[in-house]
Amino acid sequence: MAAGLSSNWKKLQATLKTESSSTPAKDKAPAKRKAGGSLTAQPKRQRLEQTQKTDRPVAKPTPKGTKSSGAAMGVAQSSAVAKGSSSTVNPSLALWAEDNDISAEALAEAYGLGIKRNALVVSEQPRVNEGLAPGIEIGKYVAMDCEMVGVGPDGHDSVLARVSLVDFHGRQVYDSFVRPRERVTDWRTKITGITPKHMATAREFDAVQQEVADLIQGRILVGHDIRHDLAVLMLTHPTTHIRDTARFAGFRQYGHGPKPALRTLAKELLDMEIQTGHHSSIEDAKVAMLLFRKKKSEFDMEHANKFERTEKAAGKGGNKSKTGKKKSRR
């Protein structure tokens, strides 16, 4: 019995050897050359793993005790872009944007940077009365808010006492107390938190006015009822370069009068409580920018409908002479 099994086993081995020698070369596993020159078969699984290691981006190990953010989607390191801060844009994406003439604002808008969890408002502590912030490269958009005190017999007239500006990402660009040029009859401390002692380090109105004018020149100015802020600064700004959250049609439903309050918009749209104590012009400027960014596409559409059609209509008459007749072609 044992001899029979041994004979059958030998026949089976011979048959397998014959079939193996007749198999076409293309069906064989690719060979890998050793250093000495001989060829050895490389397992398919091993080759596949090597290919995947070459093609796949190297991920940093996750520290123990922290949860994974899940599988990345889109480009490599996309999770870093989506964390919610302009500083988390990976270098390759930033360089690509720069090479293609894409602004930091457009990049942030595309990836929603600074919007999640109201990061524009809580990203940093205000640096009160700092003046112009060092090292900030301002883009196309700035948001502004002012605090005012009362002058005149009854203190009803408003003058500038503090002004703050932030950029598109909510970073503080400018903040200063301003020394009123008239005698203050109502400091409005319960609202603004400003007292006479703040005037000891306040800057002169003319200096602040010039610095603010330089900051907003040529930029899109965002604010809530911004005309009042411009009035106390005694500045003007092109209407086409203003985005006012108090006058935006998409926010009218939240107002009980002609315009909604900033505090109401923050609560309804951002689920935030602001102005619970003293008002902060830095916080209000950040909230205005966040509201604008939340509905930016609708702001842009409203602006286009309001101004671009007017500009096109005005341009149709641009090829006429002073007498109103069309210029003849020669």
From TrEMBL:
Family: Belongs to the REXO4 family.
UniProt keyword list: Exonuclease, Hydrolase, Nuclease, Nucleus, rRNA processing
Domain Exonuclease per the UniProt entry, residue ranges: 140-301
Hydrolase keyword on record: yes
Polar residues biased stretches: 1-23
Gene Ontology biological process: ribosomal large subunit assembly; rRNA processing
PANTHER family per record: RNA EXONUCLEASE 4, RNA EXONUCLEASE REXO1 / RECO3 FAMILY MEMBER-RELATED
Source organism superkingdom: Eukaryota
Function comment: Exoribonuclease involved in ribosome biosynthesis. Involved in the processing of ITS1, the internal transcribed spacer localized between the 18S and 5.8S rRNAs.
GO cellular component: nucleus
UniProt KW Nuclease keyword: yes
Compartments where found: Nucleus
Organism, as annotated: Pestalotiopsis fici (strain W106-1 / CGMCC3.15140)
InterPro entries: REX4_DEDDh_dom, REXO1/3/4-like, Ribonucl_H, RNaseH-like_sf, RNaseH_sf
Database matches in Gene3D superfamilies: Ribonuclease H-like superfamily/Ribonuclease H
Name of the featured protein: RNA exonuclease 4
A Pfam family assignment: RNase_T
Cross-referenced SMART domains: EXOIII (SM00479)
Region of interest (Disordered), ranges: 1-77, 303-330
Comp. bias regions, Basic and acidic residues: 46-58, 303-314
GO MF annotation, one: nucleic acid binding
CDD domains: REX4_like
